[in-house]
Amino acid sequence: MRTVSRNHTRIIARLQAELTTATRHNGPNDRAGTPVPVSEAWAAYDHRPRALLRELDARSGAHEIRITGKLRYELRPPAPAPDRREAPGWERRIDVVVDRDPDACTDVTVYLDGIALSDSSFAVHVIDPGASGPTHEWMESATDHADDVPEPVRQQLNALAACYHRHCGRESCTE
Ligand SMILES: [Zn+2]
Question: Cα–Cα distance between 162 and 11 in angstroms, integer?
Answer without folding.
Answer: 57
